[in-house]
Structures are given as structure tokens and as C-alpha cells.
Known about the structure:
single chain; alpha+beta; CATH 2.40.50.100; 2 domains; 4-stranded antiparallel sheet; 19 strands; about 20% helix; globular; binds calcium ion
Amino acid sequence: MASTIHSEIDYDQAGRQVSYLYLPQSPHSDAWGAIPIPIAVLNGGLGPTVLLTGGNHGDEYEGPITLGRLIRELDPGALQGRLIILPALNTPAVLAGQRLSPIDGKNFNRAFPGNPEGSATEQIAYYVNAVLFPMADAFMDLHSGGSSLQILASAIIEPAEDPAQMARIVAAARAFDAPLTVMLDNLGDPRTSTAAAVRAGLTVVGTELTGGGGVNRQGLEVCERGVRNVLAHLGVLETTGDAQPAGNRRVTRIPGPAAYVFAPRAGVFEAFHELGETVEAGQPAGQVHTLDAPAEPPEVVRFRISGTLYSKRTFGRVERGNCVSVVITDYVAPG
Ligand code: CA
């Protein structure tokens, strides 16, 4: 089925194009209007095509800032291949500074494979899945933790069943050379951008670059260096001798549902540990206070596995079931 999105971009044209994809939108104030989604194509000729996206979630800024800088600074003539860059992919969410689109309330990263007959978020996801993925050899989707989470700066491995594809993915994620590399599959959720890109056969690299809904300088530095490292690894950017990433940092994973700690009831969560600390199964992760019933003792919440504290909730206030902590364990990556 055809995508609803139209554009003046010519993906085969050499050089630099900076323009918009137009998603038709027909609200009360603008019957024949469109939502402009920024896109840049930097085409240096023969070589792989790399799709780079930020703003999948609208409150994660290190990726979009990095991609804006690439659009301004990279000379297409210096590239061996083509970059398709969408720094504010779910533009309505990015302009609102929100995880979800204010138009349809949807999470872009739970919208794949998308639907050309669906809501705004679903139509954008469909364009990425049906038009952009088939053009690309590699995909980098640059996330941070968003408003509700702080996450250690890391490159993400989205696992693939095919061993050859998995080896490509692991090599590219390690080439990013973030302080941590984490295998993370959102508990097997097939609706994420990276899961869809793996199904399309691409070499896929994700990120988590701190979070909290602000702009983190350390996350930004890791992101800017990492994106260039991966482009060099893929052969699109020239490598300078001393900029070769070590690629030998610790590789970890979120081993399953037990890695997540959820609030057992509503209240205010007090975390007992800082990110990066070694924690043990059964050890208290924190406690939930009931502020309007001060005679009630706080309820202690325990880690279910041993490992390293990778992520924790930023907001104090919790509802039952909110994710308050995530633990990673070491992983021996194939290849
Ligand atoms: Ca995210």
C-alpha cells in the first residue's frame, strides 16, 4: 500500500538536500495542511546507505542534537555512501517535548510496522518501514532514557536470530564505543523501530544516552563520537588512524523480565543505589513511602537478580507497576 507521505527529496541525487517529508494532516484550522518532518540526505556516491534517526521519542535530545550537527558539518563529497537523516522523526512529539505524539497519543517505538491507513504516528512508522528501510543497509536509532528514566550511556544491540546479521550488529554496536554496550530487546516487543529494522535485514545500532528529559553533556559527547565511529566502521566516513575505537568495552544485557524492578504500590519511591553500582538479588532496591498515611511503614522493594544498576526512575511519584530500576548482567557476545 502507498504511503501517505510526500516529499521533494530525490534519494538518488548526489550532494546535500535538507528538506521535509510532508504528512497530510487535516485539522479544524488547516483542512489541506501537512506536518513537515525534517529530513536530510547526504549522498557521496558508491557505498552503503545509513538511515539515522532521532526524536523517535520527543523528550530525548542527545540524538537529535548530534544529527543536526552532522547535517551542518558533514561534506557529502567526503562520504563513501549515503546518509538519510531524520533528527526529529516523530516531529509532533519532538515539538511538544513529550514521549508520545500529542496528535494521537501514540508511542512511535510501539507503532511498527506502521499503517498507511492509521493515525499520524502509524503513518510515519509505515513510511520508515516500507520506504526507508528497503533503501538502507544500516540503521541507527538514537534514544535516551526520556523524562521517566536515567540510563547509563550505552550502545544497544537489538538481537537478530540470523548469526551473520547478529555478528554485524554486535560489531557495529561495539564500534560505537560507548562506555557500555547492552543487548536489549524490550522483552521481545516486535513493534520497536530496531526490531522492525532487524526483520528488514539491516545492521542496527541503538543507544540510550542518559535521560531525564534534559540535555546531558556526557551523553552528547558519547553520541557524537559514537555515530562517527559507526559511520567509519561501515566505511562511509574516512577513519583517522588515532580515532579507531577500541571496540573492547564491556558487553552486557538485560537478561529478562526479572531484571526489572516494579513499584509494588502507589506512593513515592526512594532509590537506595546510584547507577553503575553492583547490586545483589534480594538486596533492597529502595522503598515506597505513603505520604498521606505517615503511620504506615514504607514498603521495601528488592532486586530480583544480581548485576549492575543500569537504569532508574527519575520521578519520585510512582503508581503500582511503574519501572523503578533495571539491572544488567555480563554477556558474551558472539563474533
Ligand atoms: Ca527512548
